[in-house]
Amino acid sequence: MPPANHYAAYVFDAYGTLFDVHAAVRRHADAVGPDGQLLSEIWRNKQLEYSWVRALMGAYVDFWQLTEQALDFAIQKVPSVDASHRDALLEAYWELDCYEEVPTVLKALKDHGAKIAILSNGSRKMLESAVRNAALETVLDDVFSVEDLQTFKTTPSVYEMVTTAYRLYPDAVSFQSSNRWDVAGAQKFGFRTVWINRTANPDEYKDYSPDVVLPNLKLLS
Q: What is the pLDDT of residues 81-108, one digit of tens each?
């Protein structure tokens, strides 16, 4: 691994990378019942699918609306889950837990003099809530939301928000994501990429391989 100050900016995807997308269902595990994990996986998968389809269609709606629509589908798909839990699950999504190593790693990178930022599909309000809940305000220099562009990753202009804002060439930016498709998009754009493979998934998009693969963020700092 290169030293932390080798890169001018360390930019992180938010959902699944810094914040645990399954924390909302886990928080209500007893109420949701034994199919909670299945519900959470469908919820997440549909949330992402809707973002890709919307980007291709040029029919943007913000990520919160996609999150609501994805949960509605998941509840219909998993009929053992009582639909009365919908509002509680959505409320919990506003305050997702961050992974335990996140505050320490981000602070260490910032102390080395790098810019620290989030680049996310999330809406501004969603990201503000998640950052506030995790008490990350003091370690983040910027939070870039696709809401400014009215599209979603992996549209190249999303990654370009970072290089434009910081006046950097792409190879001066280290981009971290738990989403392999996001890593592929960032790699094609020219970022140095780190795939945070928390769930030991098999590799894909091998023509756009990450520069580094890590099981979590701990080794990044």
A: 999 999 999 999 999 999 999 999 999 9
Residue 98 makes CB contacts below 8 A (sequence gap 6+) with: 18, 19, 20, 130, 133, 134, 136
DSSP 138-155: TT-SEEEEGGGTT--TT-
- Of the candidates 173, 169, 174, the one whose C-alpha atom is nearest the C-alpha of residue 196 is 174
Q: Which of 13, 20, 97, 182 is catalytic?
A: 13
**Phi/psi at 216 (nearest 5 deg)?**
-165, -170
For the segment 32-64, what is each residue's pLDDT rounded down to a tens digit? 999 999 999 999 999 999 999 999 999 999 999
Distances (CA, A) of 220 to 30, 176, 215: 35, 9, 10
CA-CA distances (angstroms) from residue 128 to 42, 96, 134? 25, 12, 10
Tokens representing residue 126 in the block:
């969603």
Q: Is 13 a catalytic residue?
A: yes
